[in-house]
Amino acid sequence: MTDQNAELDAALERVVEAARAHLAAVKTAAGRIDDDDVWQAYVALNNASFAYDELLLDAYGEVTPWDVESIDPEEAEQRFGLGVDGADGDGTGDPYPQVVSVRQRRDYRVPSVAALVRAAEVARRGSVPEDEDPGAVESVGEAVLELLQAGDGSLAALDVPELEPLDGLLTVSEIAEPLDLDAFEDSDGDGPFAPREGDLLVGRLDEHPFLPDEEEDHAGHNH
User: Fold this and answer.
1) 88-120: per-residue pLDDT in tens?
2) Domain-located, residue 197
3) How far is residue 171 from each of residues 60, 176, 203, 207, measured CA to CA in Å?
4) Which residues contact 149 (CB under 8 A, 6 or more apart)?
5) N or C: which end of the chain has fewer CB within 10 A?
6) Which one, of 180, 169, 171, 173, lies nearest residue 197 by Cα?
7) Range of the domain at 217
8) What three-state secondary structure class fits 173?
9) Are 3 and 9 in contact (CB under 8 A)?
């Protein structure tokens, strides 16, 4: 058992070293998503843990609490596009440079302009210091923009009683070049959304709102 014990000691040391390397990579990445070094360190830690577990089972019939399976590093590189230098397999960069563009349009009916403006003014007052005059909201467009700004640009900010959702759509396209905001004037609302040569429309999702009145109608039909 002396040789097996030596193998176990060496395998455990590899687990410890791999764990330290993984922690160092995680700290360096500082929360960065899909970091190549973190992934490679993870694979190394996983495989070192698997090897130690297998040796422990063979030598003593014991197991660790780590429920892991071996990961083929080459297969992982092909799957995630990672090479030894953190690029793709041949080190030349991503062979698929397309960008995915998601574009959405949603229309709303304004049942009461006064009510919408009041809601927007409340949102505006909450975003400026108390000693400053927030100013009046002067149009329905400005009111909607104010609600969006208060909601950090999320369309969920428009899920309010003062707006009645109408049909909308969402498109997903594969494009060659990402959006360059500096290429369009601030007043240009069409250019950034216009398809360009080479863009590929993957598909679109049509949105049909389910309104409270319709819910009552459906409930009535079900009885």
Assistant:
1) 444 445 555 668 999 999 999 999 999 999 999
2) yes
3) 58, 16, 6, 11
4) 123, 127
5) C
6) 173
7) 97-108+165-223
8) strand
9) no
What is the DSSP code (8-state) at residue 107?
Answer: E
Residue 85 domain-assigned (yes or no): no
Same domain, 103 and 155: no
Token pair for 72: 């083929």
Same domain, 104 and 212: yes
CB 18 within 8 A of CB 44: yes
- Closest CA relative to residue 43, chosen from 94, 89, 82: 82
**How far is Cα 22 from Cα 86, in angstroms, rounded to an integer?**
15
User: At what angle are helices 2-29 and 36-60 packed, to 10 degrees?
Assistant: 160
Closest CA to 164 of 85, 205, 110, 114: 110
Tokens representing 155? Answer: 């369309």
Residue 166 and residue 105 in contact, taking contact as beta carbons nearer than 8 Å: no
Residues in the chain: 223
pLDDT tens by residue, 122-132? 988 887 787 78
Q: Is 87 part of a structural domain of the chain?
A: no
Structural domains counted in the chain: 3
Q: Is residue 58 a part of any domain in this protein?
A: yes
Tell me, yes or no, whether 169 and 66 share the same domain: no
